[in-house]
Amino acid sequence: MTTHTVSQEVAPTTNTINDHLRTANQTTFSRDLEFLSSLANPYYLNHLALSGVLSSPSFLRYLRYLDYFRHPRYVRYLQYPQALHFLDLLQREEEFRIACRDAGFVGEVMARQVGHWATWRDPEGQTGEQGEEGQA
């Protein structure tokens, strides 16, 4: 008498499918977050404009898709919240997309952004004055 071993194919379990979906979702979220964060860099916007990407209809659809980051559940992951402002401009302002081709314009946007970072908590420059008085 011979015994036969029957090979059984194991169907994917719900947990396995969920794990794959979770991994795929995390990968997509990470990619979207990284791309959205890169929009905070005016020099990257210049690169996109010069390469012609900013005028692509599929790219504009992708920008609309990224709006999900405005929800409190996702916005908390943004390290550079000004990326949402640039996202608005890219979605709604063709003039901005065209202006991003100009290195002078991009340099001015960058200078304003850096200037904002330097003073956003202290727009009147009062912190520096108080610090000097406290030391005297």
From TrEMBL:
Pfam families: Med31. GO terms for cellular component: mediator complex. GO terms for molecular function: transcription coregulator activity. One of its GO terms (biological process) is regulation of DNA-templated transcription. It comes from the Eukaryota. It is found in: Nucleus. The keyword Nuclease does not apply. Gene3D superfamilies: Mediator of RNA polymerase II, submodule Med31 (Soh1). Keywords: Activator, Nucleus, Transcription, Transcription regulation. Component of the Mediator complex. Belongs to the Mediator complex subunit 31 family. Component of the Mediator complex, a coactivator involved in the regulated transcription of nearly all RNA polymerase II-dependent genes. Mediator functions as a bridge to convey information from gene-specific regulatory proteins to the basal RNA polymerase II transcription machinery. Mediator is recruited to promoters by direct interactions with regulatory proteins and serves as a scaffold for the assembly of a functional preinitiation complex with RNA polymerase II and the general transcription factors. This is Mediator of RNA polymerase II transcription subunit 31.
